[in-house]
Amino acid sequence: MLQTLWKRHGLVVAAGAVCVLVNAQGVGPLWFTGVALLVIGVLMRRAMTLGQRPPREEAPPLSLSIPVTGRWMARNGPATKVPSHTHNLAQTYAIDLARRPAPEPVWLWPVALRPESYPSFGEPVSAPAEGRVVAVSDSQRDHLSRTSLGGLFYVLAEAFIRSLGAPRHLLGNHVILDLGDGAYAVFAHLRRHSSKVAVGDRVTEGQTLAECGNSGNSSEPHVHFQLMDSPDITSARGLRFTWRYRDDDGKEHEGAPADNTCFTPAVPVPPDDHAAL
């Protein structure tokens, strides 16, 4: 019951902000009410975040295929720090993937670029294992980039407003897969109207789910990937995963690539039938 209450923190914060903004009487009952609601809303958000921290004794990481192909860069991943994002919304071990090379961030001009300017945009996103589709969101727009100085200020304010609503406003277009054994994979910031699956569909490893986009709380087109232990992202806890990948030197690794590491998925080498003869 408490967890259900914590999920309403956005409404409490929004109500508090309205009370403060419309108050024209100075410091008085309405102002105190607004401040109290803001504090309560923040505490509710904090309680929700703490409730989503993984337990001390965790299951071993789940070995999965990488859900993209080609050369990508890892950002905000669990190999560099944990939580990689935040415990909130089960993002403890989340990772962001962006295709490289891509336009360099600029500080002043242009303020924003169209998502089509980035090589990530429109790239296929595939299932990392066999599973069943339990959630699909496909109608949110792909917005301009937020990588300039002005764009960064804008995205901070935008992220706060998005956080007051349902998680879909932060995730943008997304797909959630049930991989079995209590593991659920989330793919966020997908391209509008690019979904190739529907709720209830069974998918195979490597099957295309959708395309990389720039929807939701995203500064540039990229794929946000995470594992969690429940289909409810507002109460689930993050799970660890492991990938096989090659860095730019051709060295093969197993795990999650560190931040700013450019990599390609490691493709298994088929056995040489002649060598066995």
UniProtKB/TrEMBL annotation:
Pfam families: Peptidase_M23. GO terms for molecular function: metalloendopeptidase activity. It comes from the Bacteria. SUPFAM superfamilies: Duplicated hybrid motif. Residues 250-277 are annotated as: Disordered. Keywords: Membrane, Transmembrane, Transmembrane helix. Residues 122-228 form the M23ase beta-sheet core domain. The chain crosses the membrane at residues 12-43. This is Peptidase M23.
